[in-house]
């Protein structure tokens, strides 16, 4: 009788185990299905975002960073104004030495002094330097546009000679600028006065320049040796 009851119980236990395994497989299948849908959704979102990025201008990231920086600056200026502080002073106090040095190097790269190469390059640099200093009078420009109309923009057929009379302010400004250029040119090109009483310790002009440079950098270290040589007491 007992063996019969055990035979009846075994099929029930096996069926329960099979049902449990089937339920486990279905649960894993549902989890995989949910993960697949989630991955598909994330992939679609990434594709949409990438498409938006591709449609943006090439320098969008730089523009965005610039706008964010300008907003921070405006907020900082408002905070300084509320506290009664000078924003420029506060900004300088917050700049580290490394940042200042990096900005200085960047500034030099933007406008490097390449020295003299030829007269054409020197003339171009002088022209660019002078044009950067020009501050246009927009009010006068608008008046000239109203007065001359299309004639303000000459073509190859326009007669220019004698048609324009500069203002007194413009002439004075040009004269002042020319005088400033002459003064600066004389400052850098003046000949140094020759001292007849100075010791002659050179054999030619080039050697004299070298001795002046050596004296400027090493004079304080060799002063005692030179004095001993002059007195004849050098060891």
UniProtKB/TrEMBL annotation:
Gene: Syf2
Family of the protein in this entry: Belongs to the SYF2 family.
Function: Involved in pre-mRNA splicing as component of the spliceosome.
Protein name per its UniProtKB record: Pre-mRNA-splicing factor SYF2
Record's keyword terms, sorted: mRNA processing, mRNA splicing, Nucleus, Spliceosome
Region feature Disordered, mapped onto this chain: 1-22
UniProt key word Flavoprotein: no
Domain of life, per lineage: Eukaryota
UniProt cross-references to InterPro entries, sorted A to Z: mRNA_splic_SYF2
PANTHER family listed in its UniProt record: GCIP-INTERACTING PROTEIN P29, PRE-MRNA-SPLICING FACTOR SYF2
Main location: nucleus
A cellular component annotation (GO) from this entry: post-mRNA release spliceosomal complex
GO biological process: mRNA splicing, via spliceosome
Subunit structure: May be part of a spliceosome complex.
Pfam family, one: SYF2
Location in the cell: Nucleus
Organism listed in the record: Atlantisia rogersi
């Amino acid at each position: 009788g007992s063996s019969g009851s055990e035979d009846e119980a075994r099929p029930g236990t096996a069926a329960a185990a099979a049902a449990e395994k089937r339920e486990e497989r279905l649960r894993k299948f549902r989890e995989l299905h949910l993960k697949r849908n989630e991955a598909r959704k994330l992939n679609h979102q990434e594709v949409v975002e990438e498409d938006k990025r591709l449609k943006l201008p090439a320098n969008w990231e730089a523009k965005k960073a610039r706008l964010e920086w300008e907003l921070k600056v405006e907020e900082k200026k408002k905070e300084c104004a509320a506290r009664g502080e000078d924003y420029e002073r506060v900004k300088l106090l917050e700049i580290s030495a490394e940042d200042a040095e990096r900005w200085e190097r960047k500034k030099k790269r933007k406008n490097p002094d390449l020295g003299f190469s030829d007269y054409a390059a020197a003339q171009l640099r002088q022209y660019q330097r002078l044009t950067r200093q020009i501050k246009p009078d927009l009010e006068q420009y608008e008046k000239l546009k109203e007065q001359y109309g299309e004639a303000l923009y000459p073509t190859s057929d326009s007669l220019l000679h004698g048609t324009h009379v500069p203002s007194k302010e413009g002439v004075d400004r040009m004269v002042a600028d020319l005088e400033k250029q002459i003064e600066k040119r004389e400052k850098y090109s003046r000949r140094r006065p020759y001292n007849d009483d100075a010791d002659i310790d050179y054999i030619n002009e080039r050697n004299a320049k070298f001795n002046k440079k050596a004296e400027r950098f090493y004079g304080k270290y060799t002063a005692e040796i030179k004095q001993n040589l002059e007195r004849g007491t050098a060891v």
